[in-house]
Amino acid sequence: MPGPCPAPLAGLRDVLVGTAFEGEREAASTAVGYGLTLAKAAGAHLTLQSSAWRHSGDAAWPGGFDSAGVSAADHRLQALASAVAARSAGDAAQAGVVCTTEAPSLPYPEIVDRLAERARLHDLTVLDIGPRTYDLDRQMIEKALFHSGRPVIAVPPGHDAFAARRILVAWDGSAQAARAANDALPFLRAAEAVEIVSVGTEAEIHAAVPGAEFAPHLARHGVKVSVNDLPKGEGVAATLRAQAGLFRADMIVMGAYRHAPTREYFFGGVTRSFLRGSPAPLFLAH
Predict the structure, then answer these.
(1) Taking the mean position of all CA atoms in its chain, how far away is CA 87?
(2) CA distance 93 to 87
(3) Do the domains spanning 14-155 and 166-285 agree at the CATH topology level?
(4) 46 - beta bridge partners?
(5) Which tens digits make up the pLDDT trace of 108-130?
(6) Does domain 166-285 have CATH number 3.40.50.620?
(7) Which residues are CB-neighbours of 151 under 8 A, at least 6 positions away?
(8) What 8-state DSSP symbol labels residue 120?
(9) What tens digit of pLDDT does each residue of 145-199 get?
(10) Is the pLDDT of residue 267 over 70?
(11) Rounded to an integer, what distance in angstroms lies between the CA atom of residue 101 and that of residue 17?
């Protein structure tokens, strides 16, 4: 007789959340709440890296500042990062989630390097999407994607509780898109509805592996999937954003950085566009 059906998100055993403080007037991290509720839903272990950017002695920090003032600011940032770690540990205990925390004070780029190293030891990493003076959030996302071999969920403001009932899969037939969809299978199987969306001209959509050819693969994994081919309109990113809103997507799955980051920087790109603002948390893989 066949064994019991796997529990939703049963493939997730450990989740890493990373947040970093570079200024004293920091908005609350959305990733922390999202990661905690995700770990609870999955029955997974939660690890939180709450880092403070240590500016004293950091060559990346602009000079011309009073050293005593910088040192005092470093201590305040360390206290802030430690307070977030302690509060998260308490919230996790109350929610019945096993949690490990650390609050290192590190210079740049050791913050992002340490995060990427930790990410290799977890099933996925949850990070914030948010504007920062030195774009530390984006650096952490990119470093984790390119150097950990693990997927990242990038969470925009306003999404501090995990939800994945309706998932949009951005599909362009690339290896990155296939990797992202495969890594997201625990979420796709548990979702109520999944829509594969391809954006482009008819020739562009059929020049790669069409979404209609990929859908049976997901269906064989028990995913409730539909396919939607859309014209570019004002652009791929704008069309995907609009469709995510119409579909009421709780999560968007996409392959990250199909082109090299330098080309993305000069010529734009869907990944970079969504990291400047997304209507839903992004499940990214490279």
Answers:
(1) 22
(2) 10
(3) yes
(4) 15, 99
(5) 889 999 999 999 999 999 999 97
(6) yes
(7) 124, 125, 180, 183, 184, 283, 284, 285
(8) T
(9) 999 999 999 999 999 999 999 999 999 888 999 999 999 999 999 999 999 999 9
(10) no
(11) 9
Which residues face 227 on adjacent strands?
196
pTM for this model (two decimals): 0.89
* Residues 98, 12: Cα–Cα separation, whole Å: 14
Look at 88 and 27; give whichever has higher pLDDT.
88
Looking at the structure, give the CATH architecture of the domain made up of residues 14-155: 3-Layer(aba) Sandwich (3.40)
Tokens of 269: 């790109």
Contact, 17 vs 141, CB < 8 A?
Answer: no
| Residue 252: other Cβ atoms inside 10 A | 25
Mean pLDDT over residues 49-70, rounded? Answer: 69
Task: Assess contact for 148 and 119: CB atoms under 8 A.
Answer: yes
| Tokens coding 161 | 């509780």
CA 145 vs CA 54, 56, 61, 283: distances in Å:
24, 28, 25, 11
The beta-strand segments (E) located in 54-165 are 99-102, 105-106, 124-128, 152-155
Question: Crossing angle, helix 175-183 and helix 211-220, to 10 degrees?
Answer: 20
| H or E element at residue 54 | none
Residue 11 in this model has a pLDDT that exceeds 90: no
pLDDT at 264: 44
Partner residues linked to 100 by β-bridges: 47
DSSP string covering 218-231, please?
HHHTT--EEEEEE-
Q: Are 103 and 51 spatial neighbours (Cβ–Cβ below 8 Å)?
A: yes
Burial class (CB in 10 A: 0-12, 13-18, 19+), 153: buried
Other beta carbons within 10 angstroms of residue 214's beta carbon come to 21
SS3 140: helix
CB 167 within 8 A of CB 188: yes
| Domains of the chain, residue spans | 14-155, 166-285
